[in-house]
Amino acid sequence: MSKDLNAMLEPGMLVRHPEQPDWGLGQVQSNIGGRITVNFENAGKVVINGDRVGLLIEF
Predict the structure, then answer these.
(1) Contact, 31 vs 51, CB < 8 A?
(2) What's the mean pLDDT in 6-23?
(3) pLDDT exceeds cutoff 60 at 43
(4) Residue 52 φ/ψ region, left for φ over 0, alpha for ψ in the -120 to 50 degree band, beta for the rest
């Protein structure tokens, strides 16, 4: 997923971090000003800088 598409992420959406597959599936908690808070199965709550990482949407 392109970093530009991170703006489309909304609370409740399921994502994966492309560089941290061991974190498992994550659920978006918030997306404010390019700072995306995600609650990952194996890493807990993490704030992602959307300008640096393009999260992968899971369907």
Answers:
(1) no
(2) 97
(3) yes
(4) alpha
